[in-house]
Specification:
With 224 residues, the chain is mainly alpha-helical. It contains eight helices and three strands. Strands 2-1-3 form a three-stranded antiparallel beta sheet. A hairpin with a 2-residue loop joins strand 1 and strand 2.
Amino acid sequence: MTEHTAAVHQSAPGPTRTDHAALVHGEAVPRERVDALLRVVPPRDRETRPDALARAERQRRRWATQVVVADELARRACADRGLEPGDEVAAARVLAVAETDVAGLGSIVAVTLAHSPAARALLAALEGEQDVSEDAARDYYVRNRDRFLTPAALRRGADPFGAAAEEDFLPYERVREPIARELRRAAGRRAFVDWLDQARAGVVYAPGHEHPGDPAHPDHEHRH
């Protein structure tokens, strides 16, 4: 999964500063929402040269715009689905973001889910829509035997792919539900990323707020 599978987005015309960061279906997303997010997210870079610092800040603003736009799109999706997005006050702060989430989802999606109650509500709905078949759960159990050793087998150092006996493994019936939850969670996250890639297709970004990986601006980058 990547943050850059969607098509390159069009930038709004005109060189002058605007009071909006992007247009979502023709409706303005105010710059202030991006500014508010930047105030609570510390810079990732520790540049000291003025030119490098300016570039890092330009990219940070573009990155934050993506998070704010994703939050706006999630709010609209929740409204369309009749979902309660939760406390919007929580969107004024960013919750803790696990490094594993950044590695698996990319920083934009990971921070969106930490920042946006609407995004979390939509993700929960998408997870609930995922169907995990018996074949998929059993296949996961067979392919990941090392995860299902009994405590005694772990203490003994049993080799799950070697001479371990059947009694060294937790029975499938005991772990089927946790496996299904894990597979449903993974499928829900894939569905969320796919939804976001499609939903962003109609977004028009103001100058200085383009996607950080958009090659249409000169200092684009694909860092996650």
